[in-house]
Amino acid sequence: MPFDCAQGEIIGEITLNRQTLQAWGLAIRPRTLPAAAAGVVMGSALAWHDGFFRVDAALACLFAALLLQIGSNLANDVFDFERGTDTPERLGPTRVTQAGLLTPSQVKGGMVVVFAVAALLGVYLAWLGGLPIILIGVAAIVSAIAYTGGPFPLGYHGLGDIFVFIFFGLASVAGTYYVQSGSVSTAAWWMTIPPGLIITAILVVNNLRDIDNDRKGGKHTLAVRIGERATKIQYLICMVIAYLILPIAAWMGIVSWFSLLAWGSLPIAWRAAQTVFTQKGRPLNAALAATGQAAFVFSVLFWVGMVVS
């Protein structure tokens, strides 16, 4: 009998550990990570094309971007719960704090660890790139927390779209290129726009899906402020401009025409747009995933275009 009890305790521990790991897997939201990598891929593709590519710098930028996204996901999970925005009526993927799978203190602890590791990578990147990289890194961590946390949560005041474009477009692409080259080329500045806008479109879909719940919870996202129809138009504008930047930049001689290989991601973007304009509520999760896939495939195919050129 004592053996049976001990065996039962061991099995219980294994089950608990497995459930905890699954909860952390939900909390970091792995499906959001490819989109977070898009800007780094774009910046590295340009650095490779211009002869500045460094594997160490590119990987450090990539892992830092992924960690910042994970930290932001954890912050949103716990702070939205504490503000009462996340309820059982939520239409998006499971939030572990609201679902009771992890405690707020556990999620906050995980957030601190993730941002600390990102900061360690930032030290190496700062050694390569100096003060500009330090400023970008500090601003990225502060903004990730301030999106839903702190006395003035950016996402609750309709500022999320602007900050997503800044960090996933301008900072990600230009910062990655700068770390490897020591400057930012005209092409790098131009190519901050496509990933910045496509990833902003991900947030637009997210806010469109949650528009009713956010309105009830007092979360005044841009979607809540401008309404459902205008939010769908905003999504379309983001995606159209993102794709049109390439032929404009190619016509101006800023990038090669082979960069239009990135248009190979258009079927994914088209599928996402159809869902945005024909569905509402929970089915928009499919558009959310497809828009993220479009951002990543766009950046990878852009790199292929740089190789071909």
In words, what does this structure look like?
This protein has 309 residues and is mostly helical. It has helices spanning 2-28, 33-49, 55-82, 96-99, 104-129, 131-146, 160-181, 186-190, 193-209, 211-217, 222-226, 228-251, 266-278, 284-308. It has a single domain (33-308), classed as Farnesyl Diphosphate Synthase (Orthogonal Bundle). It is 76% helix and 0% strand. It is globular, with a radius of gyration of 20 Å. 49% of the residues are buried. The model is unreliable at 7-14 (pLDDT under 50).
Write the layout of secondary structure elements.
Elements: H1 2-28, H2 33-49, H3 55-82, H4 96-99, H5 104-129, H6 131-146, H7 160-181, H8 186-190, H9 193-209, H10 211-217, H11 222-226, H12 228-251, H13 266-278, H14 284-308
Helix pairs in contact: 2-3, 2-7, 2-14, 3-5, 3-6, 3-7, 5-6, 6-7, 7-9, 9-12, 9-14, 12-13, 13-14
Percent of residues in helical segments?
over 70%
Question: What order do the helices and strands follow?
Answer: HHHHHHHHHHHHHH
Strand content of the residues, in percent?
under 5%
Low-pLDDT runs: 7-14
- The total count of helices amounts to 14
Count of distinct structural domains = 1
Backbone CA Rg: 20 Å
In total, how many beta strands?
A: 0
CATH topology call: Farnesyl Diphosphate Synthase
Helix and strand composition category: mainly alpha
CA-to-CA gap between the ends? Answer: 72 Å
Main beta sheet, described?
none
| Text of the CATH class | Mainly Alpha
> What's the architecture, going by CATH?
Orthogonal Bundle
Q: Please state the average pLDDT score.
A: 91
Specify the overall morphology.
globular
